[in-house]
Design goal:
Helix content: 10-25%
Strand order of the largest sheet: 1-2-3-4
Radius of gyration: 15 Å
Shape: globular
Strand content: 35-45%
Order of helices and strands: EHEEEEEEH
Structural class: mainly beta
Length: 89
């Protein structure tokens, strides 16, 4: 099953010091307001974040009013159907 992790308690220095950056993790640096997906910079000056649960797209609104988007669809592509949860193997 796919999963997405979100780490929002990192400073830029802590993010930079990470040995490896998981490609299915969103990292938000609290001091510089940057959003990364793994090692890829998504947004440079985040003022707000929203998530569309239908399309699995995260939209970052920047302080200048522009937006940046990242799709998490691949992380959710193997999700479990609700009717199979709790069913016997």
């Amino acid at each position: 099953m796919g999963k997405v992790k979100f780490k929002n308690t990192l400073t830029q220095a802590q993010y930079n010091a990470l040995g490896s950056k998981d490609s299915e993790t969103l990292y938000f640096t609290s001091d510089t307001k940057r959003l990364y997906k793994g090692a890829d910079l998504i947004s440079n000056a985040v003022a707000g974040l929203s998530f569309d649960s239908t399309t699995f797209i995260v939209t970052a609104t920047n302080v200048d009013g522009t937006t940046a988007q990242v799709s998490l669809a691949s992380a959710f592509s193997t999700k479990v159907d609700a009717d199979t949860l709790g069913a016997a193997n």
